[in-house]
Amino acid sequence: MMELLLETKLTKWLGVFMLFKLCLAIFPTIIRKIYFLLITAHRVDIRNFGEWAVVTGCTDGLGKAFANELAKRGLNIILISRNEEKLKNTADKIEEEHRVKTLCIQADFKKRDCYSNIKKELIGRDIGILVNNVGMARTTPGEYSTVDEDFIWNEIDVNCGTTCIMTRILLPLMIPKRKGIIVNISSISAEMGSPSMGIYGPSKCFINMFSSCLRKEVECYNVKVKCMTPGFIKTNMSKLSHSFFEKFPILAKIIFPDAKSYVKSAIESFYEDDLMATGYWGHTLMGLLFIWMPLKLRMHTTYLFVKILNYYSTKQKLQ
Ligand SMILES: NC(=O)c1ccc[n+]([C@@H]2O[C@H](COP(=O)([O-])OP(=O)(O)OC[C@H]3O[C@@H](n4cnc5c(N)ncnc54)[C@H](OP(=O)(O)O)[C@@H]3O)[C@@H](O)[C@H]2O)c1
């Protein structure tokens, strides 16, 4: 009886402690947001960075949404992806809807020789924004010992290599103008890990550290670096989670936005000074709930969650 009482009290205090930690963590974020909305937001125009924006991996999901949202705000868009037909369709739609110019560059980022052509096309343009968006991940969980070796190399090239080389190509165009922004799309997996999903989480850890180092180096040239660390977003890449979130629609409303809603919110954080941003309020909340956990506990949680996602996904496939 005494034990049960103790347990209940302990649980209550643990709850109070977590709530306290959450409030402490949320408070500075709220203050920064209010400051941004009142002081900064109305003074910024995204076209101040330059005439053109480059988006990698832009024919689906987040990339497509970024291209559309930036075009909506008046920027000309350079679209880089691997499927020519999808590229053309995306470009035609953007030109028709937003009356801006587009340039399509076909490239498969798994191939390291794709960059010389990209470089040729970009040189001489007034490029203000680079969105290093392209990424790939396993579609189903599995043990690392069974992952195809080529898949591992491809994931390193696409998730890490592309960001490094595209940044290397664009920086010499931004530095002399003393303006520009490099936006690297990372993931909450950099903190939460990705056990049973191969090197996805580790590749995003690389992006976080790369962004931190780069920012230090280029801040003196007035070139900004932003590292976005979103949680779940409804795209092809997150197919494994779709059936789970269909079962829990209220949770989905908070932490599973579609690409368009995510990007609309994420772009606002481009102007904020912080290097890291989830880009979406539900993902910030999600991060704050888990980030206090020791790494080992975070890995257990993610491992278990991936198993749950896989259970719902397999169940739906069998129906
Ligand atoms: N969705 C999420 O829940 C989520 C969460 C956190 C972070 N992220 C990150 O957000 C970024 C975008 O993810 P997403 O969910 O929008 O992915 P997605 O829906 O799978 O779209 C990926 C895009 O990249 C292109 N692409 C893929 N491989 C390519 C290659 N080798 N060469 C050139 N283009 C290639 C695809 O074009 P094709 O038509 O040619 O395939 C497609 O346009 C990624 O960096 C991802 O890690 C996503």
Automatic annotation (TrEMBL):
The keyword Oxidoreductase applies. Gene3D superfamilies: NAD(P)-binding Rossmann-like Domain (3.40.50.720). GO terms for molecular function: oxidoreductase activity. The chain crosses the membrane at residues 12-31. It holds the Pfam family adh_short. It comes from the Eukaryota. Keywords: Membrane, NADP, Oxidoreductase, Transmembrane, Transmembrane helix. One of its GO terms (cellular component) is endoplasmic reticulum. Belongs to the short-chain dehydrogenases/reductases (SDR) family. This is Uncharacterized protein. It comes from Nezara viridula.
